[in-house]
Amino acid sequence: MITCKTTEEKCWAITASFEGCGYTGLTGNFDGQGWSWGLLSWAMGQGTLQPPILACQEAGPETFRRCCTVDVPNLSQTDLSEQLLAACRKPAADAVAWAAERCDADKRPLEHWRTVFENLGSEPGYQAVQRAHGKSYMDLARGIFDELGFKTERGLALCFDIAVQDGGIKPEARARFESAEPAEPEEARLVALADAVAACALPTFRDDVRSRKVCVATGHGHVHGRDYDMERDFGLTLGPVVEG
Fold it and tell me: Which of 86, 103, 133 is the last residue of a domain?
């Protein structure tokens, strides 16, 4: 079980688990996005990875340089900070090409670059930077939560995963939800919202969206090959939201 004190921390932990990176994980060019990293799997191709990296450097230049100084094959200890910063200032398409050149034949980032991002993600100050860069998603989730009148932890977690994976509730999903929405209890309303959001997702992603949303709404499910129990794994319940 991941120990989280507040509901927002639980939301972060759940969606980060679905996204697959946590604070430190770096994934490669499997989807044509170059590299993806961090709590919300920020991607170079979408231009979302670059801002938190640049913010980390601004928050602590010396720490950033230390995190980027790693063993490189045939070069020993090498400071890669300037290379990374330069890549993050490129147009997104150029950044993707740059990252793709630094992946192996299986499109995985080279080991020394994975070490750089593990170092960055392990720094408490840079973890705070990641959370700050995800604040807009939590603000969106809170807005959906309040607008729909949800009251429970599961409700906020579902709204947060919708904000992150789907960018909010599409008009057609909202219409579908409102036409099917039961009056109570809240769990039934959450399931109705999960179904509506999934039904309006792009066909390629529909099953993934449904598995994530229904898992949160019902408190259990199977996502990306893993069985989840929201209360056992994250302490998430149908109780009221716990604030910090």
Answer: 133
